[in-house]
Structures are given as structure tokens and as C-alpha cells.
Design a protein that fits this description.
Radius of gyration: 23 Å
Shape: elongated
Low-confidence stretches: none
Strand content: 15-25%
Distance between the termini: 39 Å
Number of helices: 6
Mean pLDDT: 87
Length: 187
């Protein structure tokens, strides 16, 4: 069973309360201070949540609880919601080279610059990302567009041209999609 990990940061009372009920729920519990917080976070590469009563920490998976007293049911609800949100965000964001591709909002970003993409452009980028070698036009037609290779169409070339232009205009990157004799690949 994959237990979710909760790190309670500098809040002994909350740690003690959660420690009493942890066996009834699907999580393991750790108490952290300034010295061991980063070490704990580094050791838990998967499902973990940091709970603190201070918003001064810079972590994506931070749950701030500073309104006490809080009912146990409400506390567990907040913990579960934060785990769900964190999992959703982690599954929706894909790294493509120097870029972040957000599958939910259909955006690509780099250095706080964001550009909208179409669903087809996302599918094209993901397909190229998941291939280690260059991909020929007929394979893109078949796998991304679901066209037969016997169709004469310039759909792939047109989409790649537009996507390259969009990336160049937004990020000044002319080498995002490379064209070789063997096909297209991401740089």
C-alpha cells in the first residue's frame, strides 16, 4: 500500500493529533523543523504534503492551517483536497525541453511567457516528445491525425509551420521542432 506522507512543519500539537489518528487513514506522518524539512522533502519524491500554520514556506504542496480550533473531519477534508489538487496538477504538467506544457489549460510556457495551444498542437508535441527518433510525415498523419498514409494532404506540414511560428513569435525559438531527412523531432 502506498501511504501518503504528511510532513507537519513546526506544529507539535497538530502533529500529536494527527499521530493519534494516522492508523485509521492512509498516510504516514513526520514532524519537521527548519533543520530537517528540506531533507525530508528531498527523500519523498512522490505523494507528500507539508502542513504548516505559516504561509511563509515556498512549496507547491503546502497546506496552511492557521484557523484553530478545527474539526478533525474538516482537517481531513482539507488534507484530502490538497492531495487531489497536487496530484491533478502534477499529472497535467509535462516538461518538454525547456518548456512546461499544461495539458489542462492547453498552454506552453517558458520563463513566465505563456502561449495557448490547440489540442492538435498538444498531441503533436506529445507524440514527438515520446519518440526518441525523428518521425516521418506519414506516421504523424496516421498516429496524430488518424489519416491513412495514402491521402495526399499537407495538414502535417501546415500545422508544424503554424506551431513553429507560434513558438518563434512567443519565445523567439526557431529550433523547437527540427526537420531532418528522417522526419520531425523536438529539439
Amino acid at each position: 500500500m502506498n501511504l501518503k506522507k504528511i510532513i507537519v512543519y513546526q506544529h507539535q500539537t497538530l502533529f500529536e493529533i494527527l499521530d493519534e489518528i494516522k492508523e485509521k487513514f492512509n498516510f504516514s506522518l513526520f514532524l519537521a523543523n527548519k533543520k530537517n524539512l528540506l531533507e525530508l522533502k528531498k527523500n519523498f519524491k512522490d505523494d507528500f504534503l507539508i502542513i504548516s500554520n505559516s504561509a511563509n514556506l515556498d512549496f507547491d504542496n503546502l497546506l496552511v492551517i492557521n484557523d484553530f480550533p478545527v474539526k478533525i473531519e474538516k482537517l481531513l477534508q482539507l488534507i484530502n483536497l490538497k492531495f487531489i489538487k497536487t496530484k491533478f496538477i502534477n499529472q497535467s504538467e509535462v516538461t518538454v525541453g525547456l518548456y512546461k506544457l499544461n495539458l489542462n489549460s492547453r498552454e506552453i510556457s517558458k520563463n513566465n511567457i505563456v502561449t495557448d495551444l490547440t489540442e492538435r498542437e498538444i498531441n503533436l508535441i506529445l507524440f514527438l516528445k515520446n519518440n526518441v527518433s525523428a518521425v516521418k510525415i506519414d506516421e504523424l498523419q496516421k498516429k496524430v491525425w488518424e489519416y491513412g498514409p495514402e491521402l495526399e494532404t499537407h495538414t502535417v506540414e501546415t500545422h508544424i509551420y503554424r506551431l513553429r511560428k507560434k513558438i518563434k513569435d512567443s519565445f523567439n525559438d526557431e529550433n523547437f521542432i527540427l526537420s531532418t531527412k528522417k522526419g520531425y523531432t523536438l529539439n
